[in-house]
Amino acid sequence: MDENDPWLTNELAGSLQRAGNRVTVLCLDWAGKLGSEKSAFFTTSAGTQVYVEKPVSVFRRFSLLSKLFKWAGSSCVASLRVARLERENNYDLVICFSPLVTMGLPAAWLAGVKKKNSLLIQWDFFPYHQRQIGMMSPGVVFNIARKVEGYLISRFKYIGCLSPANIAYLQSHYPIRREQHVFTLPIWGEGSALPKSDVSLVREKYALPEDKAIIVFGGQLVHGRGIEDILAVAHLAKQQSLPVVFLIIGSGSLESLVDDYICAGHANVIRFAHVPRQEYLEIIAACDLALVCTVRDVDVPSYPSKTIDYLRVGLPIVASVEKTTDYGEHIAQLGVGVYTEAGNPEALLGVIDNLLKNPDLLGAMKAQGPTCFKEYFEVDRVVSKLLNVVAVH
Prior knowledge:
Layout lengths: L7 H11 L5 E5 L10 E5 L5 E5 L9 H26 L5 E4 L6 H10 L4 E5 L5 H5 L7 H14 L4 E4 L2 H10 L7 E4 L14 H7 L7 E6 L8 H13 L4 E6 L5 H9 L5 E4 L4 H8 L4 E5 L13 H6 L4 E5 L5 H8 L2 E5 L3 H12 L2 H19 L1 H14 L1
Parallel strand pairs: 1-3, 4-5, 5-6, 6-7, 8-9, 8-11, 9-10, 11-12, 12-13
Antiparallel strand pairs: 2-3
Helix pairs in contact: 2-3, 8-13
């Protein structure tokens, strides 16, 4: 909603527009306050037309029922807008993101009924991941969600997955038709130049310690992000009197776990709530290492988007990830990080400590990060691949 605080979707739409396409975005503003304006329209500085719809009102007493009602009702509202836009414009390509249930009716209408050329960017394996991290119980609701999501996925002509492991998971858990084209589409980020900043001045500005290594984690503080493991590692580091501080940037349903740890007198953890993107980049550029954490006992292969900003500022990555993903192997092959299996705080601390004690390796990873980003993850490169695949097949 704010061009000064962009996300992946902003960057994708902007790159498509710069490539000479006419882009229309339909945005469901899930964070929109109830009672505010129901819809809005604006044009971005790149020329992208954006239609914003607010979510419908939800029940307050039953959380799962509230979410289902909010998703279904909001999808109905969005489908009305889509129907009007489709009549007025001859779209050549429709792009949707998983989970599709949140935009189920528009997706089914455009990709299924209208048979538009369609691309699904598959980065959330709903509802399998939600079930495995305890956000959804197995049973009737899960089976209905699985069938609905599977049906919607089957309507798309192209499906872009973040890695080969993601492709394998997609094909083994959803009804992929033979004529659907599944390919690897990397996560992306805007490649604009970053302003140079003095690390000491930035640390002073944000009251960060100058005499300790700072390990940063940026992202939502919710289930599935390994927040418990991060706090366990911080506790072990304090017990061993290691000169490190863990900086956590973000908010979410588990933020109280972090705040309680800090309030208990543990000074080796600092938390900042959400900060604008440019400010976030300035802060993490003044850190020494970056954390990517997921949870154990899940089989859904993740590829965290926070990787992009870490690479842009040249932060070496320490990943604690599920054993089924190829993310850790990928960052190691690219020379930008190291990894261990999720759920083992002792092993994670050992990896962090070893990397901090190896300045030559640390320096090589810092230098490789921006280069790796430009070669593999810069949004214009990814969009070029996307358009080539759609044009060829």
